Amino acid sequence: MLFFCAPLLVRNPVFAQGFTKEQLDALVYFFVRVYAAGAGLFMVFYGSASLIRGYLIYRSGYIPRFIGVLSGIVGVAFIVKNFTLVLAPAYSSDLLLVPAPITILVLTVWFLAKGVDVDKWNERVRGIPDITT
């Protein structure tokens, strides 16, 4: 929501008339910075989800384990990127996120070309006891 506050302040003359030019600039800058901080917080959750997804892919056996490892690396990269952004901004690099598009591309190509290992899936389904009866 904060992403849309800055343009609203700049484009709407009703909001602008209550502030000086410097105050308006400072307020817009504040909203943009808060939005950036929120995006960084989102990266921690996205990184945690990628790490868990990587672990589950690795353990499942339905998809090759190297894809699970790549997803885990992406999760760690997102988490490290966010913490370095907060704790040591000089060391925060976008190069940490290079594995993300590679992993997404590999996973997409794998699903389109090969898919899930159906034999392994059926084997696990047959091994699960029916608890509905």
Please name the defining characteristics of this protein:
elongated; mainly alpha; 133 residues
Structure in words:
With 133 residues, the protein is mainly α. The protein has one domain. Helix 1 runs antiparallel to helix 3, helix 3 packs antiparallel against helix 4 and helix 4 runs antiparallel to helix 5. The radius of gyration is 22 Å and the shape is elongated.
Brief rundown of the structure:
The chain has 133 residues and is an all-alpha fold.
Unreliable runs, pLDDT <50, ≥5 residues? none
What average pLDDT do the residues reach?
85
- Spell the H/E element sequence: HHHHHH
Number of strands: 0
What fraction of the residues are assigned to beta strands by DSSP? under 5%
Main sheet overview: none
Helix content: over 70%
> Rg from C-alpha positions?
22 Å
Q: Return the domain count.
A: 1
Q: What class would the helix/strand composition place it in?
A: mainly alpha
Shape: elongated
Q: Give me the number of helical elements.
A: 6
The CA-CA distance between the termini, in Å, is 49 Å
SSE layout:
Elements (H helix, E strand, L loop, with lengths): L1 H10 L1 H4 L4 H40 L4 H23 L11 H15 L4 H10 L6
Helix pairs in contact: 1-3, 3-4, 4-5
